[in-house]
Specification:
The structure is a homodimer. In chain A, β1 (8-10), α1 and β2 form a beta-alpha-beta unit. The first copy, chain A, is of the alpha/beta class. In chain A, α1 (18-26) packs parallel to α2. The longest helix of chain A is centred in the C-terminal third of the chain and has 21 residues, at 220-240. Chain A contains ten helices and eleven strands. The first copy, chain A, has helices at 18-26, 41-55, 69-80, 96-103, 119-126, 135-138, 153-161, 179-185, 220-240, 262-268; strands spanning 8-10, 31-33, 58-60, 84-90, 93-94, 108-117, 139-147, 171-176, 191-201, 207-217, 245-247. In chain A, 37% of the residues lie in helices and 25% in strands. In chain A, the strands form three sheets. Chain A has a four-stranded parallel beta sheet, with helices on both faces. The two termini of chain A are 39 Å apart.
Chain lengths: 270, 270
């Protein structure tokens, strides 16, 4: 099938699936993946690049919104306003990792965790004051928990709010609800967030500029897959242009994402 | 000097300067220009491309924020959410063209005009309701006018608010102030705006997504020049890679804008 498939979209997990699957598939096909473990991107890039350079395929890794669209916006904003500061906020949205962590607490039947950006922190950043913000000042964590019958609610709450890495560094609220309430009111997987750069220009740095990119998504997986599809189109075009090897969203010429031809883009969008 | 200059940044007017200067300079140098007459971009592109393709130089035209960063955001958002609708709002900011138009009214000594997006329209777009908005519903125009001594204020106001193309299609307010007030409170050239795409996904289009990009600029010319400088860096790199001819922001690989190398970008920004 290697000559019949333009591009493969790989949506496996970043922990153990994609580190194996993406290099393997890139030996035969153009690929796009959603690898999202930020700290391991250089290593994943090197592994995929070795294969794709050899096979003359195009492999675009770490596509989605963060890494992905948020990364792009950090890049553009930083290149335009070098004398400035970046802020990334996530939410309001469901963190599946944090929801899972709560479900592993003794006495918990089900749970849903929302990451919520702190409005005062957003306002301070938008004011151009370039604040230094701690983890606790940027986001709060809201947990909706269904306890098993007879469970010790006080103990569950304490275990959650003091959980290292996940909750201890945040102001965390725990609200106990019924399974029916959870199914009814917390079924969706919304997410989103903000990338804001605040920077100065002028002989005396007297002018401030705010560049803000934000997403408000009803469905995190459906939006992420929409980004992957757009980059799949780009991967095929880049391959036809001889741009082979491993790439990221930072390397892809924007026009390659669009179904419209270059002339129409210039005429209607520019 | 053709071998000593990496790139020329052309900041002339779009009406008569750049249509002549950009092709002329592109015969000898890599260039970046700020051509911003949207309707004439295809024609300008063709003229510049003919020269730059011949000279093997790279010419990036229509760089700034609209056209420019706003165009890029319309492209990215539309490619990701094909089933959706774009909205561009400008302001709050000073429109130099509209301020000039007021200054030409009989009896006017000086003037400053602000374009202001209508909050209710922004809110409606952000709600995901995909409203159809008229010109009048999207923006208002606020005029601060210094009248000459003895001028007929009522007549000035009527002439402004009924001026075709500039004001007749908008809700326009005229406030008469003194030259001192204008110099003190309306000296800056702030601008900005919003590009918002609202789009649907899901088997039954049941999920809505909002992508929003916004700028809040203390100085329109200083921000625009900051964008030009970043694209000047990219133009030189593209030329070294053999990407010659006329280009727009839609063609430039994002990483080319940054002073950081690709490895560092992947490690720190992605």
């Amino acid at each position: 099938m290697a000559d019949k498939i333009d591009v493969m979209i790989l949506c496996g997990g970043s922990a153990t699936d994609l580190p194996v699957q993406t290099p393997k598939m890139a030996s035969l096909f153009n690929v796009v993946d959603s690898f999202d473990t930020h700290a391991r991107i250089p290593e994943h890039f090197a592994n995929v690049d070795a294969v794709a350079s050899q096979s003359q395929k195009t492999a675009v890794i770490s596509v989605g919104w963060d890494p992905g669209m948020f990364s792009l916006n950090r890049l553009y904003a930083g290149a335009i306003l070098p004398d400035g500061k970046d802020y990334t906020f996530w939410g309001k949205g469901v963190s599946q990792g944090h929801s899972d962590a709560i479900r592993r607490v003794d006495g918990v039947a089900d749970a849903r965790q929302y990451t919520v950006p702190v409005q005062e922190a957003l306002d301070a950043v938008r004011s151009g004051s370039n604040p230094d913000l701690t983890t606790r000042q940027k986001h709060t964590r809201e947990c909706f928990v269904v306890a098993k019958e007879g469970a010790d609610l006080k103990k569950i709450e304490e275990e959650i709010v003091n959980m290292p890495n996940y909750f201890a560094d945040y102001d965390t609220t725990v609200t106990f609800i019924t399974q029916e309430e959870l199914d009814k009111n917390h079924k969706g997987i919304p997410h989103g967030g903000f990338v804001i750069r605040s920077g100065k220009t002028g002989f005396n740095k007297e002018n401030n500029h705010i560049i803000e990119y934000s997403l408000k998504l009803d469905s995190n997986p459906e939006f992420t897959s929409s980004v992957l599809v757009a980059y799949a189109r780009a991967a095929v075009r880049m391959n036809k242009m001889g741009m082979t090897g491993c790439k990221t969203v930072l390397d892809v010429p924007p026009a390659y994402l669009s179904a419209l031809d270059d002339y129409t883009l210039r005429k209607t969008l520019l």
